């Protein structure tokens, strides 16, 4: 096993192969010697010696341009992974690191905008749509050389449904109250059964990275599965983090960086039968401050960065000097909004969640519509975002071209119209210009928000000014994020709040927002029965969209659902900033999708010949 | 004594300059509603990041140059050649209450709507930086005075009582002082701010911060005052007052306070800038004044962005200059005051 002995001397504290200490030490000494002899003349990094293994029988042949090996890809992240165990990971940073070395059965192709096979080779869906048979790729091996089989798949689902190991996938894979059934048919075939037809199945099944049974079975048996693959594992024994993904962890230095190197057993090859990925090292540096990240990129020290709308012009100035391009990505996929608490009734202490007269305003759709008309979101897009944002009109971001409904009711800034609507609902302005409802109550409410970044206070200040023009008094109170979440999702004691949700490619990810019984149906969550008539209509549409397997029909249901939300505006939508990604020009095979990671195909990227 | 200090101060050139600068600053703060052409929350989304408007003389009257936005994506504005609007003095604007006495809507200067005058440019939502600076001064400049008022009173009360009464009063007071000093103040601030934020609106946060700052700031002063009080206690005039049967409270107020006044004055002058800086750094860390309130620290925090430098939005950094000037002036004034007071600082020698 001739391996990366003389690699990057500075980064690696210990070689990858744990047990052979003698060899490691010898190799390190050799590497240091070589580095000392060569000095820095050959650049910072030496080429990676690739291990050669036979190509798997069912290897996927990449259709991208064949490239050449070499290169270091550096990026920055604001936080480091908190775990490398997919059953424990809750945050995007951990998930991103895990995604480099674990694969799911399926994955979402952001350019084709559809689900494509990953570890599964193909699948069959039965007549009644309740049984899905997946054939796995044959000949695939884990990064330590062990064969990958259906046993690993069954083990993964067995582990995630185990009561000893609560995790976020349990809810995801429980359909109509029943966990998905998994059974092994033969060495390379698995059969899934669901109690009801569930059309997002193929999309959802790809969320969990398949775990290696030969590595984790002992921990599973002894009840320590959630303790396995922690940050310590990556620190001390990165070779234990075995996966099928394009990379494997080479070294991890908390607070500084993680270095990935190619997985020599990866199952994708290019047209010339060269095993992907081309990149020698993938490095993520941990840089907390967003401004610093931008500066690092603009000074050529990282290969990729997300650029905020206000910084685009400044960063572009250095583009020629450091050979990068700032790509426009289009609207962001997440949604942000202010909403009113519409929860009726009282809590255990007999206090009503919202004062009854205010609840009357908040549950009145005309009141909410009037506020939408009175809120100058277009102006905010031009000022705060330098014209690089647009008002959001639907509960699904326009980034999601496939599902977004461009025909929903829209609310353009029109304070006169807002006043008209308010008057027709019995609201009047008194001599001082203050708005009062038909019973003479002054219209005032308090918005809770979490400060987060700089834009939140600015958006809220602008909202407050706009509302002042309507005679409405808005008070703002900033809480830390945890307190805010507890207030809106547990105590329900608030009038209005501001928050956002990240968006995914498939609307099934948003069902807990849309459904009246959903946990994230924030304005009135976890209802036993839909409270409002329109909420009942939404529930039906969501359920119908999950039952049908006809893609066109699904889109139709989701469009109708969006129209209802935009007419009722339970969420006062804010803006979708346009996303910009800066990427160095030296990388080839770059195909930037409209949403999601810009380097989703990092295994295909290669370095341009100098 | 006080008259002597003022006379000496006016004679001292540096002291006079400092005094003038501070008078101007505080006068501007008190009159901010009148001097500022706009409310600090008054936004104009069409004029975000507007550069400072040029004032040109035309027909012997100052006119304000009109700008147009040529590139919204880079916040670039160009002056429109030949288009100006006359600057109006004592112009009508938003209504306010002049010094809290009578309502009026007259501002020192302004221009006719829809044009706007931005002496120091505008910020992300088109609010006038000059107006925000003036309103922000209300917070940044008063926080020091309120702060020292609380700390000096508390410090004098605890310190002189400890020094005068001695024994267990002294023991308890000094242990309390040590306890307060031992509290890591930044953590306490962050914790208190986090715990109390839920119960205060951003507008009230100001009072909360002064309170927190001064409640942990009095201990140092108390310790020094106690030491001075210890030596005062043995002085003949104090003993005489005691023999004559004067009450302790009266002795503290009539005999201790005047003798400690010079120290209190110098210490107060030197600790005002500490409060100004503390407010600025707290707001900078996001623990201080919040939107839609305004303070110099908050304005600086909002300027802490890459685009301020890449797009050359220098006017957003003016609150930093204001803090700099104020702090330097207070420190120099403190120095001058100490020079004046020191020769007479001859306690325990007569």
Give your account of this protein's structure.
The complex is a heterodimer of chains A (610) and B (350). By secondary structure, chain A is of the alpha+beta class. Helices cover 29% and strands 21% of the residues of chain A. The longest helix of chain A has 18 residues, at 21-38. With 350 residues, chain B is an alpha+beta fold. Chain B has two domains: 2-26 and 141-349, MetI-like fold (Orthogonal Bundle); 50-126, no CATH class. Helices cover 59% and strands 13% of the residues of chain B. Chain B has a three-stranded antiparallel β-sheet with strand order 1-2-3, with no helix packed on it. Chain B is elongated. Residues 346-350 of chain B have low confidence and may be disordered.
Biggest sheet features of chain B: 3 strands, antiparallel
* Overall helicity of chain B: 55-70%
Largest interface, counted with CB-CB under 8 A? A-B, 35 and 33 residues
Strand content of chain B: 5-15%
What CATH architecture of the largest domain in chain B do you see? Orthogonal Bundle
Which strand order spans the largest sheet of chain A, edge to edge or round the barrel?
22-21-23-17-24
Largest sheet strand order of chain B:
1-2-3
User: Which of globular, elongated, flat, extended, rod-shaped describes the shape of chain A?
Assistant: globular
- The number of helical runs of chain A is 19
Short description:
Chain A is an alpha+beta fold and 610 residues long.
Key words describing this protein structure:
heterodimer; A: alpha+beta; five-stranded mixed beta sheet; 19 helices; disordered N terminus; B: 350 residues; alpha+beta; MetI-like fold; 2 domains; three-stranded antiparallel beta sheet; 13 helices; 5 strands; 59% helix; 13% strand; elongated
């Amino acid at each position: 096993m001739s391996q990366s002995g003389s690699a990057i001397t500075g980064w690696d504290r210990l070689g990858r192969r744990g047990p052979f200490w003698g060899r490691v030490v010898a190799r390190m000494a050799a590497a240091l010697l070589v580095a000392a002899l060569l000095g820095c003349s050959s650049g910072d990094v030496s080429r990676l010696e690739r291990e050669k293994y036979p190509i798997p029988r069912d290897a996927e042949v990449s259709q991208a341009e064949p490239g050449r090996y070499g290169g270091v890809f550096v990026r920055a992240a604001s936080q480091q992974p908190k775990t490398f165990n997919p059953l424990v990971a809750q945050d995007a940073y951990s998930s991103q690191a895990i995604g480099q070395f674990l694969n799911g059965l399926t994955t979402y192709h952001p350019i084709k905008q559809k689900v494509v096979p990953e570890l599964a080779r193909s699948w069959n869906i039965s007549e009644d749509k309740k049984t899905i048979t997946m054939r796995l790729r044959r000949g695939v091996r884990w990064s330590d050389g062990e064969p990958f089989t259906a046993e690993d798949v069954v083990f993964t689902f067995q582990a995630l449904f185990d009561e000893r190991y609560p995790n976020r996938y349990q809810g995801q894979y429980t359909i109509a109250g029943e966990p998905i059934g998994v059974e092994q048919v033969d060495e390379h075939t698995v059969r899934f059964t669901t109690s009801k037809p569930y059309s997002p199945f193929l999309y959802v099944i790809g969320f969990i990275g398949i775990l290696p049974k030969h590595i984790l079975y002992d921990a599973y048996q002894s009840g320590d599965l959630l303790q396995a693959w922690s940050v310590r594992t990556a620190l001390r024994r990165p070779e234990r983090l075995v996966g099928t993904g394009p990379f494997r962890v080479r070294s991890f230095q908390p607070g500084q960086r993680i270095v990935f190197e190619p997985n020599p057993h990866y199952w994708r090859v290019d047209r010339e039968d060269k095993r992907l990925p081309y990149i020698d090292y993938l490095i993520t540096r941990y840089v907390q401050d967003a401004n610093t990240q931008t500066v690092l990129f603009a000074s050529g020290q990282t290969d990729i960065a997300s650029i905020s709308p206000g910084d685009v012009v400044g960063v572009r100035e250095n583009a020629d000097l450091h050979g990068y391009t700032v790509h426009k990505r289009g609207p962001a996929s997440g949604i942000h909004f202010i909403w009113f608490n519409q929860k009726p009734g009282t809590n255990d202490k007999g206090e009503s969640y919202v004062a009854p007269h205010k609840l009357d305003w908040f549950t009145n759709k005309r009141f909410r519509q009037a506020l939408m008309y009175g809120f100058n979101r277009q102006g905010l897009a031009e000022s705060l975002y330098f014209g690089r944002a647009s008002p959001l009109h639907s509960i699904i971001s326009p980034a999601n071209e496939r599902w977004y409904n461009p025909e929903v009711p829209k609310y353009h800034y029109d304070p006169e119209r807002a006043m008209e609507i308010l008057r027709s609902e019995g609201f009047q302005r008194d001599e001082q210009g203050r708005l009062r409802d038909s019973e003479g109550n002054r219209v005032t409410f308090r918005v809770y928000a979490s400060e987060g970044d700089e834009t939140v206070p600015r958006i809220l200040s602008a909202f407050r000014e706009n509302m002042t023009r309507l005679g409405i008094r808005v008070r703002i109170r900033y809480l830390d994020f945890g307190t805010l979440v507890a207030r809106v999702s547990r105590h329900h004691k608030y009038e209005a709040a501001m928050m956002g949700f990240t968006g995914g490619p498939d609307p099934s990810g948003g069902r807990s927002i849309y459904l009246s019984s959903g946990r994230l149906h924030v304005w009135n969550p976890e209802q036993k029965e839909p409270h409002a008539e329109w909420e009942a209509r939404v529930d039906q549409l969501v359920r119908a969209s999950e039952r049908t397997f006809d893609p066109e029909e699904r889109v139709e249901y989701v469009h109708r659902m969006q129209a209802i939300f935009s007419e009722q505006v339970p969420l006062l939508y804010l803006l979708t900033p346009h996303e910009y990604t800066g990427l160095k020009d030296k990388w080839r095979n770059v195909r930037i999708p409209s949403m999601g990671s810009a380097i989703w195909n990092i295994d295909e990227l290669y370095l341009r010949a100098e | 004594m006080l008259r002597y200090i003022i006379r000496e101060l006016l004679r001292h050139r540096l002291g006079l300059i400092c005094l003038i600068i501070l008078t101007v600053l505080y006068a501007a703060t008190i009159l901010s509603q009148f001097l500022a052409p706009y409310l600090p929350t008054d936004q104009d989304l069409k004029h975000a990041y507007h550069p400072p408007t040029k004032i040109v003389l035309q027909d012997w009257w100052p006119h304000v140059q009109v700008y147009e936005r040529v590139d919204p994506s880079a916040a670039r504005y160009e002056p429109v050649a030949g288009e100006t609007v006359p600057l109006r003095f004592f112009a009508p604007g938003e209504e306010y209450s002049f010094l809290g006495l009578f309502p009026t809507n007259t501002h020192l200067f302004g221009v006719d709507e829809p044009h706007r005058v931005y002496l120091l440019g505008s910020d992300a939502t088109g609010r006038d930086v000059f107006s925000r600076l003036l309103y922000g001064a209300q917070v940044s400049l008063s926080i020091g005075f309120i702060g020292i008022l609380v700390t000096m009173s508390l410090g004098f009360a605890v310190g002189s009582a400890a020094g005068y009464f001695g024994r267990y009063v002294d023991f308890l007071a000094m242990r309390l002082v040590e306890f307060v000093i031992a509290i890591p103040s930044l953590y306490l601030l962050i914790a208190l701010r986090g715990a109390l934020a839920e119960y205060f609106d951003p507008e009230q946060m100001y009072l909360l911060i002064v309170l927190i700052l001064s409640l942990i700031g009095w201990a140092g002063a108390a310790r020094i005052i106690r030491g001075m009080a210890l030596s005062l206690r043995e002085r003949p005039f104090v003993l005489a007052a005691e023999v004559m049967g004067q009450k302790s409270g009266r002795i503290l107020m009539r005999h201790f306070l005047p003798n400690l006044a010079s120290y209190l004055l110098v210490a107060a002058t030197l600790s005002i800038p500490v409060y100004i800086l503390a407010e600025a750094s707290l707001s900078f860390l996001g623990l201080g004044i919040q939107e839609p309130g305004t303070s110099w620290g908050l304005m600086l925090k909002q300027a802490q962005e890459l685009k301020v430098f890449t797009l050359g939005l220098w006017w957003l950094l003016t609150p930093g200059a204001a803090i700099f000037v104020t702090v330097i002036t207070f420190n120099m004034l403190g120095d001058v005051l100490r020079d004046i007071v020191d020769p007479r600082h001859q306690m325990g020698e007569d």
